[in-house]
Specification:
This protein has 555 residues and is α+β, with helices and mostly antiparallel strands. β19 and β20 form a beta hairpin. The protein is elongated. The structure holds uridine-diphosphate-N-acetylgalactosamine and manganese (II) ion (MN).
Length: 555
């Protein structure tokens, strides 16, 4: 009898313990909420929590689609209800009421945004659910890949960095987060040393890596990516806030096609008052002008999107916020490690993924806020220029379209941007398509907004042989005509040539181009075909300055 009683007691004890520590029930969940909630200004939700508008939060359904994939509702309704009841500074993404004393220059100096305001807003603040109504009903695959979140930082503010981490952990299904990797790019601020490490001991998923010298954001991200263990890697800037259910819509697209790189909608966290809002125009296509400034262009009507909650193709990403299958990222060669400090990498990865067999999408149902700075607060080491990064990208990926860039930025033409052999080899190895293909199939709407300026021909007139003084001329004005040497006769139609930027040697009178048959070792005239390599010629050397003077008639 006694023994039986003892057993019973033991069993009851175990049952109580199990209930208490089961995730999402009892003490454990309370513990979890407390750990992440250090805000003094939070109010616990009242007993009867009102339903959230537009959300069928009683539903936790799974459906099997026609493709046999089981899809489920990934919303964390409990967390959403808790968020909805929060009040206080900046809660619900509301602007912080600024006084003039808050707006002193000192508040912006270190970060380029108002750190005083940031410091007075909870690290767990709530955000408005500004997703399209249809996003609230969407189901995503029950089985999704997990992800490493990689956050590079250089001298980031304490509260802005931690709010990034908190928002990710608070608003992502824990099973989808393999780890959060904070990569310190050689910061010299005290709060980013021991204090950060101590703080993160209570967040077991967070790892801190540090570069050994200032590497810039590109190599810093690479360091994080090399250490990552998740199936997907997701990059964020160090001053972001992940919004409701941001992660499943991203991972779901990668689960469907591992070669898709996905970007969330990037919302704006105001650098003065930390109000949270969409960017002007919200969903837009990523593009660039020919000076290589990043631009956003409206989604053209031809793309026929009757459902604005569906993913759409974007030619280039903004740069900082995206998710990519980890192995695919490395198959694409990661980033060009020759890119220094800041900029250009968003074009490299975008051109590369499109041209080398993948694709890129923006996902309207995934939203992440980002603080767009008032100014750049950090120093860029001497001798480093964004121009070099952009030139590298143009040289490796943009083919003849690089001319449009040089046309706008003549100073890039002779800039030395270092060795690009590895990048060019990669492009060959991956059998990547041409930039012309990218422009006509992906960024086809871009020239309507940013028409390229056609460069003038580099040279025209007769082509005179220096030894004999004779000129190259065509024999008949028809395709197939051989080319021969003749005495130069000024104004004679046969001897006028034009060497265009498209690298052809054009004969305007016959409207044909010099073509070649390498097998017969023969040159002859043919109808122009700018895509045919047998018609493209390179002069060993040209002097752009001389040509420019000549073109301007200044001698
Ligand atoms: C945008 C991108 C940014 C990057 C950049 C072009 C968004 C929202 N942001 O500029 O991610 O693609 O364009 O390169 O799309 N950092 C370092 N080391 C440095 C400098 C910066 O680790 O030397 C970190 C920095 O702390 C931040 C990230 O890199 O987490 C991006 O830098 P940023 O915020 O200054 O760039 P941003 O948003 O102006
Ligand atoms: Mn940023």
């Amino acid at each position: 009898m006694r023994r039986k009683e003892k057993r019973l007691l033991q069993f009851a004890g175990l049952l109580i313990a199990a209930l208490l520590f089961l995730p999402n029930v009892g003490l454990w969940s309370l513990y979890r909420d407390r750990v992440f909630d250090n805000s003094p200004d939070t109010v616990d939700g009242p007993g009867g929590i009102p339903p959230i508008q537009g959300l069928n939060h009683m539903r936790k359904v799974a459906q099997v689609g026609p493709d046999g994939v089981r899809r489920t509702d990934w919303h964390d309704y409990a967390a959403m209800r808790r968020d909805a009841t929060r009040i206080g500074n900046g809660e619900q993404g509301k602007p912080f009421p600024l006084t003039e004393t808050d707006q002193v220059d000192q508040a912006y100096r270190e970060n380029g945004f108002n750190i005083y305001v940031s410091d007075r807003i909870s690290l767990n603040r709530s955000l408005p659910d500004i997703r399209h109504e249809k996003c609230k009903q969407k189901l995503y695959a029950e089985k999704l890949p997990n992800t490493s979140i990689i956050i590079p930082f250089h001298n980031e503010g304490w509260s802005s960095l931690l709010r990034t981490v908190h928002s990710v952990l608070n608003r992502s299904p824990p099973q989808l987060i393999a780890e959060v990797i904070l990569v310190d790019d050689f910061s010299d601020k005290d709060h980013l040393k021991v204090a950060l490490e101590e703080y993160m001991t209570r967040m077991p998923k967070v790892r801190i890596l540090r570069t050994k010298k200032r590497e810039g954001l590109i190599r810093t991200r690479l360091l994080g990516a090399a250490a990552a263990k998740g199936e997907v890697i997701t990059f964020l800037d160090s001053h972001c806030e992940a919004n409701i259910n941001w992660l499943p819509p991203l991972l779901d697209r990668i689960a469907q096609n591992r070669k898709t790189i996905v970007c969330p909608m990037i919302d704006v966290i105001d650098h003065d008052n930390f109000g949270y809002d969409t960017q002007a125009g919200d969903a837009m296509r990523g593009a660039f002008d020919w000076e290589m400034y990043y631009k956003r262009i409206p989604i053209p009507p031809e793309m026929q999107r009757d459902n604005p909650s569906e993913p759409f193709e974007s030619p280039v990403m903004a740069g900082g916020l995206f998710a990519v299958d980890r192995k695919w990222f490395w198959e694409l060669g990661g980033y060009d490690t020759g890119l220094e400090i800041w900029g250009g990498e968003q074009y490299e990865i975008s051109f590369k993924v499109w041209m080398c067999g993948g694709r890129m999408e923006d996902i309207p149902c995934s939203r992440v806020g980002h603080i767009y700075r008032k100014y750049v607060p950090y120093k860029v080491p001497g001798g480093i220029s964004l121009a070099k990064n952009l030139k590298r990208v143009a040289e490796v990926w943009m083919d003849e379209y690089g001319e449009y860039v040089y046309q706008r930025r003549p100073e890039y033409r002779h800039l030395s941007a270092g060795d690009m052999t590895l990048q060019k080899e990669l492009r060959n190895r991956l059998n990547c398509k041409s930039f012309k293909w990218f422009m006509s199939e992906v960024a086809w709407d871009l020239p309507k907004h940013y028409p390229p300026v056609e460069p003038p021909a580099a040279a025209w007139g007769e082509i005179r042989n220096m030894g004999s003084g004779m000129c190259m001329e065509i024999k008949h004005f028809v395709s197939g005509s051989p080319i021969r040497l003749e005495n130069c006769v000024k104004g004679r139609g046969e001897v006028g040539w034009s060497h265009g930027q498209d690298k052809s040697l054009y004969h305007p009178v016959s409207n044909s181009c010099i073509d070649s048959s390498p097998s017969e070792r023969r040159v002859f005239m043919n109808s122009c075909d700018p895509s045919s390599l047998s018609q493209q010629w390179l002069f060993e050397r040209t002097n752009a300055t001389v040509l420019e003077h000549f073109n301007r008639g200044t001698n």
